[in-house]
Design brief:
Elements: E1 8-11, E2 14-17, H1 21-26, H2 47-50
Antiparallel strand pairs: 1-2
């Protein structure tokens, strides 16, 4: 599996996503081959912005009585 960014482009009455040549080569894909595409929406808040938001709170302490042996 490989991830990359691409722009959705109109083609006739449809839309397409262009695969970069290096992705085609690294995944050994050929023209006309069927692939699966997973759509990942953009995050409204980046993970980078979340780090450090809980400063000043107590550290996590696990309650060991919740486990059954």
């Amino acid at each position: 599996m490989e991830t990359f960014k691409s722009i959705i482009r109109p083609v006739g009455n449809s839309f397409c996503v262009i695969l970069p040549k290096n992705v085609m080569n690294s995944q050994k894909l050929k023209k006309g081959e069927e692939i699966e595409v997973a759509i990942m929406p953009k995050r409204k808040v980046s993970l980078k912005d979340l780090f450090g938001t809980l400063k000043g709170t107590k550290p996590f302490v696990r309650e060991h009585d919740d486990r059954v042996f």
